[in-house]
Amino acid sequence: MTTPRNIQDQVTLDGVRVLVVEDDYFIADEICNTLRAHGAEVIGPSPDVEQGRRLARTQPIDCAVLDINLQGDLAFGLANELRERDTPAIFATGYDDSVLPEEFTGVVRLEKPVNLRALLQAVHSCVRSETTSNT
Amino acid sequence: MTSVEPPDLESSGRLNRGLRRIASASGIDAILRATTEAAQELANATGLCAVPNDQTHCLIATADGVATLSGNTALQRLIASAADGGEAIVQHRPHLEVELPSRRRLLAETLLTVPIGEESGFVGLAFFWRDGANPSTEQLASLPALAWTSCLALRTQQHAGELRECRAEHRAHISELQHRARNVLAVVRSIIRRSGNTAESQEDFASHLEARISALARTQGALTFHEQEGPELEDLVRAELAANAVREDQVVIAGPSLRLAPRAAEAMALTLHELTTNALKFGALMTPEGRLTVSWSIESIAAPTMRWRWIESNVQVAQTSPERRGFGRELIERVLPYELGAVTSFTITSDGARCEIELPINERTTARMQRA
């Protein structure tokens, strides 16, 4: 059986471009450091939806990690925009399931404080399934 | 609406008392006329099909029996004066099917209630039937019972509505608290990591951590206490200095009233904590001769901005602490710009530490009242 520690060590996200939209500096920093340590390229981080949207429109991205409530602005609009372009998103949030609109019920939701191993797994598997479905 | 509860004598009594009061003031005919006219106006205003007219009968239930009226006259004056006296006419639903205690069902086209006062509940009911669908003598006889049943049903409905609103509000509140708690935990986790990275010993780590979490807890307390209007910046400054037993004669605090939004309050409080701790260990608060000025002003040359300054002076030997390159510096140079869009600087001069923060005044940084 593989221990969680091993999973974290195994996950490689080499060359994966991840947009991070998170308004808390420390959480954003933690997420970005973890992603970078596993080979991902971080786009952002952005503290608000507007800048996140700008980044998503101007830079190629493979996957996005979105906080749901960014200082009062909800990230669902941005999540929809990404979905239309077939870019998978992961929600990292302090809210429970009940705030998720129905259309996002299938989206991976990580509860805060975010478990970084779970985050890596989530990014890894959504990028992998993206690649699989494209081939 | 179909379940018939045992009579609520209290509601029934209120209903009857209210009707009697109106009747004794203006006569029962006046009630009937006014109710009819008011019903017509309401029906017209809401586009109902059932407008009481010559072909429509109006019935009013009172404790003493049933009065019938055809046609319409003016009770509008009575209603108007009732409204002036804090009473109101409420229309509940255009079509109300009610079940009598005898299990017979009646269709009321329009139902009017006349609540008197905020607490008194419903005191008047009027039922209208289309001509040709006139109620039987038996049905008319059961109208007083029907009146209280309807009253109860309406009050139950009203209470259920209030309860639903209350529950929804409660759920939203819990969700918000949960969100805040999780965010605080995330910040605490980050603080633990940061403290671990910069600490020189285990004792050092523990004491830093404890002090930082205390600062965060104080802010959470202030945020909960001032949930609506947000905590005053000056209070945050004074609370941090007081928590560290800083002597008042060493410090000058000056600035206009400014209430901060939660995130800004949190970030500012942590920054204040780091600045204070450093001043106590290495700067102006280390010796009684040292001086500290914390001042701020609000400027709106380009956009509304708060210009905040922490200026230490009369420091014998200005030292650079490890913390000054660590958590405190990260707060000032990274957290404040990232989370609040602030422009910041932190320098150690020969006189002591100096921190400047230019904070844009917007919905992220200040409480709603402040921007209005």
State the gist of this model:
The complex is a heterodimer of chains A (135) and B (372). Chain A is an alpha/beta fold and 135 residues long.
What can be said about the biggest beta sheet of chain B? Answer: 5 strands, antiparallel
Please give the CATH class of chain A: Alpha Beta
CATH topology of chain A: Rossmann fold
N-to-C span of chain B: 47 Å
Structural class of chain B comes to alpha+beta
The total number of structural domains of chain A is 1
What count of helical segments of chain A does DSSP give?
A: 5
Strand order of the largest sheet of chain B: 2-1-7-6-3
Protein name (chain B): histidine kinase
InterPro entries (chain B): Sig_transdc_His_kinase_HWE
GO molecular function (chain B): kinase activity
Catalytic activity (chain B): ATP + protein L-histidine = ADP + protein N-phospho-L-histidine
Provide an overview of this structure.
The complex is a heterodimer of chains A (135) and B (372). Chain A has a single domain (13-134), classed as Response regulator (Rossmann fold, 3-Layer(aba) Sandwich). Chain A is 43% helix and 21% strand. Chain A is built from five helices and seven strands; from the N terminus they run H-E-H-E-H-E-E-E-H-E-E-H. Chain A has a five-stranded parallel sheet, with helices on both faces. Chain A has a two-stranded antiparallel ribbon with strand order 4-5. The longest helix of chain A is centred in the C-terminal third of the chain and has 19 residues, at 116-134. By secondary structure, chain B is of the alpha+beta class. Helices cover 49% and strands 20% of the residues of chain B. In chain B, helix 1 (9-26) crosses helix 2 (28-46) and helix 5 packs antiparallel against helix 6 (202-225). Chain B is globular, with a radius of gyration of 35 Å. The interface between A and B is medium-sized, with 23 and 23 residues.
